[in-house]
Amino acid sequence: MVSRVIPVEAFDLVIFGATGDLARRKILPGLYRRFCDGQMPQDACIIGAARTEQDSAAWIAQTVEAIESYLPASKRDANTMAAFCERLRYVAVDAMGDAGWAALAQMMRPDVVQAFYFSVAPSLFGALAERLHHFNIARQDARIVVEKPFGRDRETARALNATLAAHFNETQIYRIDHYLGKETVQNLMAVRFGNTLFEPLWNAQYVDHVQITVAEEVGVGGRGAYYDKSGAMRDMVQNHLMQLLCLTAMEPPARFEPDAVRDEKLKVIRALEPVAQKQIVRGQYQAGSNPSYLADVENPGSRTESFIAMKLMIANWRWNGTPFYLRTGKRMKARKSEIVIHFKTPPHSIFDADAGRMANVLSIRLQPDEGIDLRVTIKEPGPGGMRLIDVPLDMSFAEALGPEAADVPDAYERLIMDVIRGNQTLFMRGDEVEAAWAWTDPIIAAWEAQGARPLPYAAGSTGPEEAAIMMHQDGRRWQDI
Ligand code: BG6
């Protein structure tokens, strides 16, 4: 199966923070991959901007080195790399001063799509936005891309929104949540709204509960200073898990268009019930073969969580009474992200009690091994009478669609191309982010007031025992990790 690659229009993309970690790890390798796939037009121009005084040749050499360290050799070749490098320029700019801005203005072309990626600390957003206007660089139709963390509570998110709004319209602002760029996340919408089969059953009458898991094997080593001020709630739940929850629970939008989709997501966030503390388990990983959380963040008294499990209820007609269980953590048993819909058992069984009784389960696997799996009940083959078993109707993308399907664009690649195309569907709107914080803030405030320590869990485990107990008390169990 060969996928269709539609080239985007010519563009100037300025990456502020061009020497930083995100640019090196994700943005530049992603752009290179789009270039290899023929999606980037020949006259695209990528301008690296950062404080470091250096010439284009030096930055290009660093970029090549970054791409080589983040992309396997099979995904690159010298000729394409040379052609890609011709698209790159560098300019040293001072975000807080005047230096470099006139030079940047000179590099920009008047007649191509204009995008500015703010891959910098949020405290610099205002200064960059101001200077882009003061030096007459940003046009009315310019797009800006901003990254998380988008605030650390509702107030700071509001202030950031106001800072950006002073210079750009909402239609120009692309707030990235890279989970929305993941292939299977979009497939969730295709499965829900492209089939007749699921949507009629997608409600409290037929769904017993939903589980959303994002488990990581890695710890926080290297990012300790940032992470210890955030914790799993701010780093993962408020954004990534919340977005997955919204796409799973939202009403069908009238069209797959930015505001239609974002309106529906916002309604879900606003319908979330406040969460009682007993519906939340917070954990912190202990030392295993690697250091403990406390050692990783070099803060022996830290009360920040590296794991969280919680039960959410959505107060609307569709979901009344159906819990959504969310779980995420670092240093867990395996890397696994999935959304699992547990349907109810059939209301009545026509078979003997010892035949068994099973429920359908639909799993949407984000990573690794992206795919969709539906467990259905059949008769156990053989002469043993009517005994029921459940078997998977498994669609691993790699198996069903050929190896190329496994080679899907990374979330960042897709999202950057969407910026160039001017499609905001997979980006968060300002009111969505504020609403997510409004729901998160009281939960965090309650922890801070209590000053409770997170529960310990063994590195390489599935989290604290209490998370399993919370499920058990509801007569359910977590999916295996
Ligand atoms: C980031 C978080 O947003 O997402 C990290 O800050 C986390 O802590 C990462 O590791 C997970 O992303 P992915 O794509 O590897 O699942």
Description:
- By secondary structure, this protein is of the alpha/beta class.
- It contains 15 helices and 15 strands.
- The chain has helices at residues 21-36, 56-70, 78-85, 101-107, 125-134, 154-165, 183-194, 224-249, 258-271, 293-296, 397-401, 403-406, 411-421, 430-450, 465-473; strands at 11-16, 45-50, 88-92, 113-118, 143-146, 173-175, 207-215, 280-285, 307-312, 324-329, 336-343, 361-367, 371-379, 388-396, 455-457.
- The strands form two sheets. It has a nine-stranded mixed sheet, with helices on both faces. The protein has a six-stranded parallel sheet with strand order 3-2-1-4-5-6.
- Helix 1 (21-36) links the parallel strand 1 (11-16) and strand 2 (45-50).
- The relative contact order is 0.14.
- The structure holds 6-O-phosphono-beta-D-glucopyranose.
- 6-O-phosphono-beta-D-glucopyranose binds at residues 148, 178, 216, 235.
